Amino acid sequence: MTAFIDIDGIQVSPDHYIDGHRVGSSESFADHSPIDGRLIGHIAAGLPEHCDAALDAARRAFPAWAALGPAARAERLLAFAEAFKRRGDDLARVESEDNGMLVTRLRGHQVERCAHNIAFFAQQALQQQDHRIEGKNARHHVRYDPAGVCVLITPWNSPMMLTTWKLGPALAAGNTVVVKPPEWAPLTCSLLADIAHQAGIPPGVFNVVQGLGATTGAALVADPRVARVSFTGSVPTAKTIAAATARHLTPTSFELGGKSPLIVLPDADLDLAAATAALQYRNAGQVCLAGTRLLVHADVADDFVARMKKVVDGLKVGDPREPATEIGPLIHPRQFDKVTGYVERARARGARILWGGRPHPQGSLYYEPTLIDGVEQEDEIVQEEVFGPVLTLQRFTSDGEAVHLANGTRYGLAATVFGAPDHAAVVGRQLRAGMVWLNAFFLRDLEAPFGGVGDSGIGREGGHWSFDFFCDIKDVMQPQKPYAPAFAGR
Asked: Domain spans of the chain?
């Protein structure tokens, strides 16, 4: 295996990062760029001995890292966040090459957000230990104690952001971690390990073991040394993980898929709604929060579609490294075949393709932004997560029908409603979703809870909810008045 993978002069190690050192493997897997299909390199595959070594390193490092306390950990994590920002351009270029995300979006939004993920939770941890309750009989000091070794499994659609989203609170809480990056886009996690090392994060506190989910991931989540498992990905994989962690009652958090509705009421600002609907094609539709089901009132549906078409016609599909590009490639041939299969089966059932519905001439993994009309609620294309630039259109004639359609899948991650403010709020309150946007989309604050219901996940991340998961919560009580033990009847 080569010592480094070179991406535009940026050196990225293909090896694991365990206990502060790079560790190779006798087995590897290929990593290809979705931009043009070229082989980026061969990545060290995690074998049982690598999983064992990483978990042992994390367990050895845990007592000292936990004993530092929130203030000392915050100092080191803030240095980590600053080091992250200094390497922001490198991270953006590596992530784009590895998973096809737009360089402009990575530089303009994600790098800053990733650094903030680390810094915010470092500071939030300081506040958690000040939680006190003055009860009737006792004073309560609620402590958030570190849980132990955490396994963090991140997805391929946004590996850099979602790794830091988990890493920030896990480390700030005083835990040590083993990260299992996505096999289709592992490189920014590897680069992140170098940055952590250079920023002074102690050996064993942050480990990276690469590999396939069915082998490396399965070995990590089933290990009794693991105190927490945090997973973002598909529902079938989550069910497999849940079965493994149940054997040891390991607390597990899942952020899974979505089939979110975007509702356009008859009193909506149609230009705003249409522009936001077109935004759902971002990252080639590979966004769990995307409002892929457009539910539009029949009275305004034709007007809405015409306005949306004007926006979509102006979108440029192309190389994600080019500044003018707005939609890049799907990540992998398997994902491309999955998206194509959904569209072709919908077409065969009689659905109407209003636009798109075919590969884009840019390259083998590029697919045209697509809108499908003439679908029924029970259709596969309405019920299943496509995870590509494919939206469906359904018309409704009443608020009740809109709510019924919106709530009519097994998912419940997010929802978006456009309409007069009071009207949108009334509809929004009736939606089964972990988060609802009114006349907006994708606004997020780290203090707020993030997560879904139904097949969209278990648990919440963000703010104190992250610490509720990554900590063992302890109530330390002192009596409000002198205490004297007494048996009943005396």
From this structure: 5-256+452-476, 261-438
Predicted pLDDT at 3 = 79
255 is catalytic: yes
* pLDDT for residue 178 is more than 60: yes
Span 203-257, pLDDT tens digits? 999 999 999 999 999 999 999 999 999 999 999 999 999 999 999 999 999 999 9
Q: What pLDDT band is residue 266 in, cutting at 50, 70 and 90?
A: very high
Secondary structure of the chain in the HEC alphabet?
CCCCEEECCEEECCCEEECCEEECCCCEEEEECCCCCCEEEEEECCCHHHHHHHHHHHHHHHHHHHHCHHHHHHHHHHHHHHHHHHCHHHHHHHHHHHHCCCHHHHHHHHHHHHHHHHHHHHHHHHHHCCCEEECCCEEEEEEEEECCEEEEECCCCCHHHHHHHHHHHHHHCCCEEEEECCCCCCHHHHHHHHHHHHCCCCCCCEEECCCCHHHHHHHHHCCCCEEEEEEECCHHHHHHHHHHHHCCCCCEEEECCCCCEEEECCCCCHHHHHHHHHHCCHHHHCCCCCCCEEEEECCCHHHHHHHHHHHHHCCCECCCCCCCCCECCCCCHHHHHHHHHHHHHHHHCCCEEEECCCECCCCCCCECCEEEECCCCCCHHHHCCCCCCEEEEEEECCHHHHHHHHCCCCCCCEEEEECCHHHHHHHHCCCCCCEEEECCCCCCCCCCCECCCHHHEECCECHHHHHHHHEEEEEEEEECCCCCCCCCCC
The CATH code of domain 261-438 reads: 3.40.309.10
Catalytic residue (one of 97, 288, 385, 461): 288
What is the rounded distance in angstroms from the CA atom of residue 395 to the CA atom of residue 414?
A: 19
d(CA 121, CA 127): 10
CATH number of this structure's domain 5-256+452-476, picked from the four choices 3.60.70.12, 3.40.50.1820, 3.40.605.10, 1.20.1260.10: 3.40.605.10
Is 461 an active-site residue?
no
pLDDT one-digit tens code per residue, 472-483: 999 999 999 999
Q: 95, 97, 183, 255: which is the annotated catalytic residue?
A: 255
Cβ–Cβ under 8 Å, residues 365 and 338: no
